[in-house]
Amino acid sequence: MTTGWIIGFSVGGAIVVVVVLLVLPILVLARSIGRAAPLINGELVAAERHTAALSELRTTIDHAEVITAGLRRGRARLGG
Known about the structure:
Sensor histidine kinase, mainly alpha, 2 helices, membrane, transmembrane, about 80 residues, single chain
């Protein structure tokens, strides 16, 4: 084997080591996110369940506006 081959294999091996060292933290982070994903999803489902009643908020506001308008009319008729 010539010196050129030895240098080529050394450079190639170094590149492989560098790539592995760069990819390894990404894989560790991805694994951590994958483990946390079910917990995060569960919390999002719970948040959706706890805030579902807010979809009826417009109806509540509309009824409150009708009631307060009636109270204003009643107060105006009574001279208040």
